[in-house]
Amino acid sequence: MNIQDYKKAKSGHKDLSYADLRGADLRGADLQGANLADANLSEANLMEANLRFANLYRAKLLGANCLRVDLSAAHMSNAVLRDANLVSANLQGAKLFGANLGCANLAGAILKNANLGCADLYFANLKGADLEGANLSAAKLGRNSRKFVYIGAMKHDLIYIDGQVQIGCEVHPVDWWLKHGRDIGLKWNYFEEEILEYEYYIRMIADMKKEE
Question: What is the pTM for the complete model shown?
Answer without folding.
Answer: 0.73
